[in-house]
Amino acid sequence: MQKRRYNTSLIIAIIVFFIGASIVHGVNIKTEKELSSSIKIDNINYDTQTFTPSDDTFIRMRDPGNNYGSSESIQVRNRYGYSGHPYYWEHDILIRFDISSISSNSIIKSANLNIFYYGWADNNPSGRELTLHKIIDEWSEDTVTWDTQPDYDLEVTSASFVPSSTGIWMTWDVSSDVQEYVVDQDSNYGWQIMDEQAWNTFDIPNSLFRSKEYSENGNDYLPYLEIEVIEPHMVFIFGRIENLNTEGDFTTFDAVKLRYLQFSPFSFDTYSSGEKVTTVGSKIGILTTNFAFGFFNAAI
Length: 300
Description:
Layout: H1 2-25, H2 32-38, E1 47-51, E2 55-60, E3 73-77, E4 91-96, E5 107-121, E6 129-135, E7 152-161, E8 168-173, H3 175-183, E9 191-195, E10 206-210, E11 224-230, E12 232-247, E13 250-263, E14 266-271, E15 276-287, E16 291-299
Antiparallel strand pairs: 1-11, 2-4, 3-10, 4-9, 5-8, 5-10, 5-11, 6-7, 6-9, 12-13, 12-16, 13-14, 13-15, 15-16
């Protein structure tokens, strides 16, 4: 009887040790941005999530008090016109997405903002560079105007060139900003898209895009943000594996006969045979070419 109690106590002590070590060493090894930028992650399975805007509009310098939040079009135009009226023509897009459903410990592989270019006015903007900046102040599509516009970061996050023909999606790479936004949700004010190349004559090109208010063809032409994301959770896993592969802080393997215990939210289940498992950061336990036992930050 004493021997049985001793063995039980020893097992409990080992589990407590693993939990304590995993909390200290397995959770805050690096920031998510450091992980995603410092290693090769091309071979890891990510979950693709798509979001439509919570707010999108444009602001117009010539009508500084007007709000265009209900418009089916969002527009971009340079401010510099002919010499008599050089500074009054700017149109800028403001756009934001609610991505609070992505947990703060997630790692972003890629994030692309996509807006449908359907037309132009005054002159063809083909080949013009539209720059994207991170907004750093609060705003709402229902109230924002040129006069009340939020501040934005002067550093360009991404740029994209207007296509030679209409009816084409334009895309901006916003991966680094989205990584920041998921770590600090309160910093997510979205982006401002601008044409910053001076035109300096009549009829400045005006690039026209569909907004989230556009109602024809369902959701086919609405702006969207597409994110490839991995959301690791602290788990205890044990069982047989195969195809073990480590790249930097990431390790992937296929389940053969593998069980896991997830702590938050709590669950106990089995990985299906052949299902790929991804772990990130430090590992507390045993991980060999055909066996896993211990605590890991893993994608479930």
